[in-house]
Amino acid sequence: MELTEDIARNFARIALGHVTRPYPYKDDHVFESEADVRPPWVAHPVFFGSYDWHSCVHGWWTLLTLRRLYPGMEEAARIEVLAEETFTEAKLATELAYLDRPTSRGFERPYGWGWLLYLHLEAERHVDRQWAARLEPLAQAFAARLRDYLKVLTYPITVGTHFNTAFALVLARRWALGRDVALVALIDDWAERAFGDRSDYRGWEPGGDEFLSPVLTAALLMSEVRPQLSYAPWFDALVVANGWLARECRPVFVSDRSDGKIAHLDGLNLSRAWCLHAIASELEGDEVSGLLQRLAGQHLDAALPHVAGDYMGEHWLASFALLALLQR
């Protein structure tokens, strides 16, 4: 399936319906005193919708990406107006000030960090607007946090949820390319130390609340760190030679889409499709590339019908569907 204007308009309407929806909201906040008791939009006047902060960030990434790809669609004008109202210097200064709190050191680490950088990268492509310039201080603050974090993160976090290290580093590295050579080098060195010697994957995957594949996110990161000549044998030793890819990497079943954790599994199908398509592109010409493309298509087909529906999935799944469709 390709990203068509009809699909783009549908995704845009979904995201427009939740990036400013205040409730329900799951706050990632450490209360320092009773003075901290406040509605979410007071601390986060930009990213207060979409059920939680990080989903609002990548909801905005979805909107800006679709506005760029289909500037003539009706929803593009609505996106522009809302973005101008939202990405103001004053509101973004409040978001930045929140990070200065002593208890905000781990706020949204690392998932929200990666997505904020990816949003800034997309905003830069909208040269007719000042959104990127206004987001720049927030992006640089998270980049600085990431640099400090990687210097003390001894081991990768390989769960399939928001704490996954590799996923955030893929997004952050793409942001850093061409702008922060030192950060790219830091990510590449850290990735090699964390994953360079890994092989013969035998993890128990999927977990019941995962929206990321621990092994495929690591494999995607390494595909962007290593040239194909050294990446292909590494990937073969990781999941091909032992049969994991052909035997285990199948679309997962979602039993209850009203349960926020179980609904994560729709995201797993979509994020796997994204990883599989990207890795297949890196291995183009390799005999495993065709298998990767077929598996990606199966995962995408399994999840796309469920992007909208219950709010537990609807507030975030379009972003992952868009990642997969763009990669394809």
Tell me what you see in this structure.
With 328 residues, this protein is an all-alpha fold. It has two domains: 1-152, no CATH class; 194-328, no CATH class. Helices cover 60% and strands 0% of the residues. It has 16 helices and no strands. It has helices spanning 5-16, 40-43, 53-69, 74-86, 89-99, 111-123, 131-152, 165-176, 181-195, 214-225, 228-240, 244-248, 264-282, 289-303, 311-314, 317-327. Helix 8 runs parallel beside helix 10 and helix 10 (214-225) packs antiparallel against helix 11 (228-240). It is globular. It starts with a helix and ends with a helix.
How many angstroms separate the termini? 8 Å
Q: Estimate the global geometry from the Cα principal axes.
A: globular
The percent of residues in helical segments reads: 55-70%
Instruction: State Rg.
Output: 19 Å
Please count the helical segments.
16
The number of domains: 2
The string of secondary-structure elements, in order, is HHHHHHHHHHHHHHHH
* Beta-strand share of residues: under 5%
List the helices and strands and how they pair.
Layout: H1 5-16, H2 40-43, H3 53-69, H4 74-86, H5 89-99, H6 111-123, H7 131-152, H8 165-176, H9 181-195, H10 214-225, H11 228-240, H12 244-248, H13 264-282, H14 289-303, H15 311-314, H16 317-327
Helix pairs in contact: 1-3, 1-4, 3-4, 3-6, 5-7, 6-7, 6-8, 8-9, 8-10, 9-10, 10-11, 10-13, 13-14, 13-16
